[in-house]
Each structure stands twice: as C-alpha cells, then as structure tokens.
C-alpha cells in the first residue's frame, strides 16, 4: 500500500504581509512554539480601548497550504486575516493556537484578534463568515481578558485520525479520511495504543525536531475504534494530549496501521518509544485523515467556556 512520502520542511516561513502592521509568528507542527506570543494588551491610553476576541474556527484543509501564512499560497490564516481586516476596516492579524499542516482539517481551531473597533462580538462570526470561503467558518466568538494567551494557556488538545478500509474509495468522505483498502486488526491496534498513554519522550513520533527541543509530552487518551457513524469500514484514532510534536499524530496513526497489518506485535510500541529515533516508528499517514477536534484552556474567572 503506498504511503505519503515524508517531506521535511526546513525553511523558515516567509510572510507576505497584507499590511505592515501584521506581525506573523513561527509555529512548529501540532504543538505550537513561538518566537513572539501575542503581547498583553497595554493599559488604556487616550485612544480607544483595545479588546481581545477569541474565535473558534472550523475548516476543510484540503485546498490550503496549512494554517500559517505563506507568500503567494492560500492558507487558512491568510483567509482569516483578510476577512478580519475587511470587517474591522483596519489591518488585523489573526493569531492561531495551533498550526495545522497542508491538507489537515479542524473542527475546533482557536484564534485571537486584537481590535479597537466597536464591533459587537455576537455579530462578528456572521460578519467574518460573509467574507470567508465556504470551506472556512467561524463557529463562535468571545471577548476575553487582555492577558489571555491563545498558545500558553492551552491545557489539552484533541485530534482524530480517520481511516476507511472498504474496497471502494469513499467518495463522500475522501477529503477527510485516508482510504486504506485492507483489513486491520483493531483489537491489536487498540492494545498497542495503550502504550502511548502517559508521559513519554515522543521523539520517535516526530520530524523536524530542533536541537534542544523538549520532546516529552503527556497523552491522556489514545483510543482506536471501528464503526464510526455505523460504518464497519471506518476506523478512528482519537488522541488527547497536552501538546503535540510535528507530525506526531500522523506518525502514531501510520505506526498503528503497521501493527494492525501484523508488521509488529502490540508490545513493540514500547520499544519504539524507548528508541527515541524517528527510524524506529512506522509510516507517516497522509494529512487528509487528520482533524483538530478541540482545544481546551485553563479556566479564568468571569470567562464562560465557548461552544464548539
């Protein structure tokens, strides 16, 4: 079965600023690392008060070169920056919580904008959606405190990877599932996935790890199940953690599929973790099957949780 060829992108993203006021940040893979986080809102001055607004965003990532702005290429962040600038009538940067790779989807990406405009928060999603393409939608908006950090305040993230094992390609889900027409031993995969739960060094499940980068993460849940929405050919991998390394969930998925095909026994997953080298793990599963489901934040007084 052909697998997607891994490509290590070592170039620092360049940014084609829509306006000079945009300050773009560098992020790494599914766990966000930044060179400059959104600065706390300064104390009020003589001008209009600055507000910070949190957005929940869903998108079909098939036609985009990932979340992060790239010059001359369509990206989710670029589309949102353009829409926010049009709605607020001033240059507006949209800072995301997690960079998703090209072709990866989201149901619950979170982002923030800072604005001095008088826009009503409850009307902002409709205003933005009227200016966004049909494969990106702002689900909810909420005003938050000036010290809310869309990246540093994250406590958990959840991803789902979906595989379709039927003989015929699933034309109505082909943009969101990996079509892998071969039998897989789900119970064996589930046994292997249990080795991934807990606090471990996940270096074997990452690419483009920088020198000195902390590769220890905590996975709270890693479940494999068959029969999503009553379809016996559909297998899902649900992973929750405090953060993720570049391509971590996709390498987990590829490795579990190798185990489900009988390439390794379930207990070999512990050996892969202990090896701390990418060569020990399985294949990189294609981007199309991965979706960022939700992001959770530490609770703050006076700030209700947002619906997804």
Characterization of this structure:
The protein is an alpha+beta fold and 308 residues long. It has two domains: 51-152, Pseudouridine synthase I, catalytic domain, N-terminal subdomain (Alpha-Beta Plaits), CATH 3.30.70; 154-292, Alpha-Beta Plaits. Helix content is 16%, strand content 24%. The chain has five helices and ten strands. It has helices spanning 76-88, 124-129, 186-193, 248-260, 268-275; strands at residues 51-59, 95-96, 105-115, 136-144, 154-164, 178-179, 198-201, 216-226, 234-241, 290-297. Strands 1, 2, 3, 4, 5, 6, 7, 8, 9 and 10 form a ten-stranded mixed sheet that branches. A hairpin with a 7-residue loop joins strand 8 and strand 9 (234-241). The two termini are 36 Å apart. Mean pLDDT is 87; it is low at 1-36.
List the helices and strands and how they pair.
Blueprint: E1 51-59, H1 76-88, E2 95-96, E3 105-115, H2 124-129, E4 136-144, E5 154-164, E6 178-179, H3 186-193, E7 198-201, E8 216-226, E9 234-241, H4 248-260, H5 268-275, E10 290-297
Parallel strand pairs: 3-10, 5-6
Antiparallel strand pairs: 1-3, 1-4, 2-3, 5-9, 5-10, 7-8, 8-9
Level-1 CATH class name of the largest domain: Alpha Beta
CATH topology of the largest domain, by name, is Alpha-Beta Plaits
Total of domains: 2
Question: Would you tell me the structural class of the helices and strands?
Answer: alpha+beta
The total count of strands amounts to 10
Uncertain residue ranges: 1-36
Total DSSP helices? 5
Q: Write down the Rg.
A: 20 Å
Which H/E pattern describes the elements?
EHEEHEEEHEEEHHE
Shape: globular
Query: What fraction of the residues are assigned to beta strands by DSSP?
Result: 15-25%
Shape-level CATH architecture of the largest domain: 2-Layer Sandwich
In CATH, what is the homologous superfamily of the largest domain?
Answer: Pseudouridine synthase I, catalytic domain, C-terminal subdomain
Helix content class: 10-25%
First-residue to last-residue Cα separation: 36 Å
Mean pLDDT comes to 87
Major sheet, described briefly?
Answer: 10 strands, mixed
